[in-house]
Amino acid sequence: MKETILKMSDITKVFSTEEMETHALRGINLEIDKGDFVSICGPSGCGKSTLLSILGLLDMPSTGSYVIEGTEVSQLSLTAAAHIRNEKIGFIFQSFNLIDELSVYDNIALPLRYRQNPMSHSDIDQAVMSCLTKVDMAHRTKHRPNQLSGGQQQRIAIARALVGNPALLLVDEPTGNLDSKNGDAVMDMLKTLNLEGTTLCMVTHDPRYADMATRKLHLLDGKILAPQAQTAHPTLVDAF
Ligand SMILES: Nc1ncnc2c1ncn2[C@@H]1O[C@H](COP(=O)(O)OP(=O)(O)O)[C@@H](O)[C@H]1O
Ligand SMILES: [Mg+2]
């Protein structure tokens, strides 16, 4: 039976400065179910990162409704948004965003240490080691991120995103800073996580990686193209 994790209705986002208004999102309707693997493609500036930021409660929409697991989250205070984000959402960014002053182990444990309901040391240890094992990095707990290769750093970032057992994993250009071999390995890992039940929403420029998703969305000028327009629209896929 399908289980809806999130639903966006008519979400808009306007960035206003003194000189101009940028309409980054113009009425997004999106539903993601448990177990989905959604990819989002589109040209630079079409609103992909803005959409992921709002999906991940890093930013609030200008108008519209956004419901995560039954809770309306479009008008939350920053603190309330941070709590929901910490418990329900994992992020993977192009630039890894690990903290070089902390060990691999502490990078991954960090989100659990910020939990509203504190976890015991042994529960944290169990969660960290289980995620490190998943990404094949259990032998590198004491290293600093800058002592690892890019591919290894992204695997640590995946472990950090998974450690809180999030309902949703948001991924922005996960292979953008990797060579193709490490990029393929990271994508294989994400695909395996999805097959094991993790729900993913990923922005990518690479049509091969977009094809690994179970649902492909195309964004243009802040709108999701209708499915028929998506196949008719000349995408990178057609250029191959
Ligand atoms: N903080 C911001 N302030 C003003 N404009 C922004 C801001 N963030 C994004 N934009 C604008 O919103 C549009 C969408 O940006 P973005 O979501 O980053 O696109 P993409 O990730 O698809 O390249 C762009 O025109 C961008 O310049
Ligand atoms: Mg972007």
CATH H-tier superfamily: P-loop containing nucleotide triphosphate hydrolases
Helix content: 25-40%
Query: What is the domain total for the residues?
Result: 1
First CA to last CA: what distance?
37 Å
Small molecules held by this entry: adenosine-5'-diphosphate, magnesium ion
Rounded radius of gyration (Å):
18 Å
Largest sheet: 6 strands, mixed
Question: Could you spell the SSE succession in H and E letters?
Answer: EEEHEEHEHHHEHEHEEHH
Gross CATH architecture = 3-Layer(aba) Sandwich
Structure explained in plain terms:
It is a single chain. It contains 9 helices and 10 strands. It has 240 residues and is an alpha/beta fold. It has a single domain, classed as P-loop containing nucleotide triphosphate hydrolases (Rossmann fold, 3-Layer(aba) Sandwich), CATH 3.40.50. It has a 6-stranded mixed β-sheet with strand order 6-7-8-3-9-10, with helices on both faces. The termini are far apart. 38% of the residues are buried. Residues 15, 22, 24, 42, 44-50 line the site of adenosine-5'-diphosphate.
Short description:
The protein is of the alpha/beta class and 240 residues long. It is 36% helix and 25% strand.
Q: How are the elements arranged and paired?
A:
Layout: E1 4-16, E2 21-33, E3 37-41, H1 48-55, E4 63-68, E5 71-72, H2 78-88, E6 89-93, H3 104-113, H4 121-134, H5 150-162, E7 168-172, H6 180-195, E8 200-203, H7 207-210, E9 215-220, E10 223-224, H8 227-232, H9 236-239
Parallel strand pairs: 3-8, 3-9, 6-7, 7-8
Antiparallel strand pairs: 1-2, 1-4, 4-5, 9-10
Helix pairs in contact: 3-4, 3-5, 4-5, 5-6
Magnesium ion is lined by residues 48-49.
